Amino acid sequence: MAHLLFIPIVRPFKLAGPQPGKEANLQVLVRDNNVDQALRVLKKKMQREGLFREMKTRSAYEKPSEKRTREKAEAIRRQRKLQRKKLQREGLLPAPKKVLRPAR
Q1: Rounded distance, CA 5 to CA 33, Å?
Q2: Whole-prediction pTM value?
Q3: Alpha helices in 1-104 (DSSP H)
Q4: pLDDT digits (tens, 9 = 90+) for 7-16
Q5: Rounded CA gap, 60 and 12, in Å?
């Protein structure tokens, strides 16, 4: 029997998804009372949402000048990544090498 684990998360910061200040639910399915696997899945979802990064940045005060500098650097990185992906799609840049992982 599978149970559903709801983790309500209030996000007062800017991320894709619900509006700031609204509650967002992360749902994790617990199968056969395997809580360890559910926690791993939850951690991965939180990682993708950027919650850990956000908690780290909010753990200490960030001066407005530092915040502007960080946000500007993030915007530049985002633009470079988009430009790189666009050039790869057009065939002007070689695609990244795929890493072959050994079979389990």
Answers
A1: 11
A2: 0.56
A3: 35-49, 51-58, 64-90
A4: 666 555 554 4
A5: 16
